[in-house]
Design goal:
The strands form four sheets. An eight-stranded mixed beta sheet has the order 4-5-3-2-6-7-9-8, with helices on both faces. A two-stranded parallel ribbon has the order 1-10. It is globular and about 80 Å long. The two termini are 23 Å apart. Helices cover 45% and strands 15% of the residues. The protein contains 14 helices and 14 strands. Strand 8 and strand 9 form a beta hairpin. It is α/β, with parallel strands linked by helices.
Length: 478
């Protein structure tokens, strides 16, 4: 899915969501310190002021662009920015109390402590999160871009991208879309390698981390309509120079800017800044709660796992995330230590017809078998809880498509890649629609594609509710 937002704004979503949580936590804590009671027992005035704080937080964030260049700000500048932000939010709340003439009924101690706690929390969280992002180098290469052009135009296009300061874009490579494009593979143009030609670019993108494609060709080269349809169908966002723009069924499109070009961006679905903000906010809240539960489960489950099968309590594995990003997924270990090595000898018993995924009843690699500790934590989906850490980090979402292994990914045909158009999730559409009975990978792809096309926060909520119901009934939606 493509984010309908200004370039560079997508990396601010985490800061916005965390800042909102800091503000709410500060308000609730200040009320408790002053009244020794939870906010839910307070008067309607305090509830309405909290709502005003939330709206004030949103208004100040967007109108003052509070997180512009956030990754470049030092500790002193960050403290100044945080003070200014908190001041404006509190001033809006004071203005509200003045307008409704309830200032005398509202505790100035609560207001003052809210401001103080909010400032401390938001400054600390901003500094910690910035260091985390800088270490991961998210800010410097947030989006991976492939340029599809001709050899004659390649230098011009690359200069246009660099001249317009596309800091959040990393140009992965060039594909030359012309008859003899393949012969130039391996050449380097303006420091960027030529990675594919007309006939191999779809296959290359299918197996690599590529978020977006810029397609710009001279008028002398016919428009590659079949390639264009294939790329959009794979879930890749295609930016097409406006002079060559065209519309196909089942696409969402939006006009914007990329480098020095006006482009028409096409994708299987697009989500707005507001939708992205709320989805990430829910993920952060769910990730925090899930990590706390994971810690508690570890105390009880960990010793049993170790007793039955000595070794690490947690299991990690490289998985393929959104648009081909590789990340490490975590689980409670439910299988014996040699499970990966034994997988090859069990492939003949794989219940998924085409071998694109692995599923097997009575898997002998499970610790203690189906009725042992391994079978129990798999049936109740307890093994999946460590993935809340992946959600909190931003590798995954609460709801999405299940991330494939590298081995599975390497078998993908172009139309399978649409599963990678959304951030992977702990649960998703096919998990709550008969996961145990699905043995055809094409059905999985169909359900995941349906999720991406129909995505909304309401759909995520319905899937989460259904997942909880299935897990409580022991049906293991994950």
């Amino acid at each position: 899915m493509y984010h309908r937002s200004k370039v560079g704004w997508t990396k601010h979503i985490d800061f916005m969501a965390l800042d909102m949580l800091c503000m709410i936590a500060a308000y609730v804590l200040a009320y408790w310190i002053r009244n020794r009671a939870f906010l839910g027992t307070g008067s309607s005035l305090y509830h309405s002021v909290l709502v005003v704080f939330v709206f004030a937080q949103i208004l100040v964030t967007f109108f003052r662009n509070s997180f512009k260049n956030v990754l470049k700000r030092g500790y002193g500048r960050e403290l100044s920015a945080a003070c200014t932000h908190v001041l404006f939010v509190v001033l809006i709340a004071i203005l509200y109390l003045f307008v409704i003439k309830e200032g005398g009924s509202y505790s100035r101690i609560v207001l003052g402590m809210t401001a103080a706690i909010y400032l401390v929390l938001t400054y600390a969280v901003r500094c910690i999160w910035k260091q985390f992002l800088i270490r991961r180098k998210v800010g410097r290469s947030e989006r991976s871009l492939m340029v599809l052009t001709s050899r004659d135009m390649a230098s011009e296009v690359l200069h246009s991208l660099s001249d317009h300061d596309q800091r959040d874009i990393r140009v992965k490579g060039i594909a030359l879309i012309e008859e003899d494009g393949e012969q130039w593979v391996g050449e380097v143009i303006e420091g960027v390698p030529v990675l594919a030609g007309m006939d191999t670019v779809a296959e290359y993108i299918c197996g690599q981390w590529v978020d977006e494609v810029l397609l710009t060709l001279p008028k002398s080269i016919p428009f590659p309509e079949e390639l264009y349809e294939t790329l959009v169908g794979m879930g890749v966002t295609v930016h097409l120079r406006i002079l060559r723009a065209m519309k196909q069924e089942g696409q969402k499109q939006e006009i914007g800017r990329l480098g020095g070009y006006t482009v028409l961006s096409s994708s299987v679905n697009m989500i707005s800044m507001r939708q992205l903000f709320w989805k990430r906010t829910v993920d952060i809240i769910g990730g925090i709660v899930g990590c706390v539960i994971t810690g508690l489960l570890c105390v009880f489950i960990g010793p049993v796992i170790f007793a039955k099968s000595p070794g690490p309590i947690f299991y990690s594995q490289e998985r393929v995330g959104k648009n081909g990003r590789i990340f490490r997924l975590y689980k409670f270990r439910s299988m014996y230590m040699d499970a990966d090595a034994r997988k090859a000898e069990l492939m003949a018993q794989n219940e998924v017809k085409d071998g694109m995924m692995f599923k097997m009843k009575n898997d002998p690699r499970i610790i203690g078998g189906e009725k042992g500790i391994g079978g129990m934590i798999r049936k109740l989906s307890i093994d999946e809880f460590p993935q809340f850490w992946n959600v909190l980090k931003g590798d995954m979402s609460l709801v999405g498509t299940r991330p494939p292994t590298r081995e599975e990914w390497e078998k993908y045909d172009p139309h399978h890649r649409v599963r990678l158009a959304a951030k992977p999730g702990i649960t998703g559409m096919w998990q709550v629609n008969g996961r145990s009975s699905i043995t055809d990978f094409e059905d999985v792809v169909r359900l995941d594609r349906q999720y991406i096309l129909d995505w909304s926060m309401g759909l995520d909520v319905r899937i989460l509710i259904k997942t909880v119901g299935l897990v409580l009934h022991g049906e293991g939606a994950w």
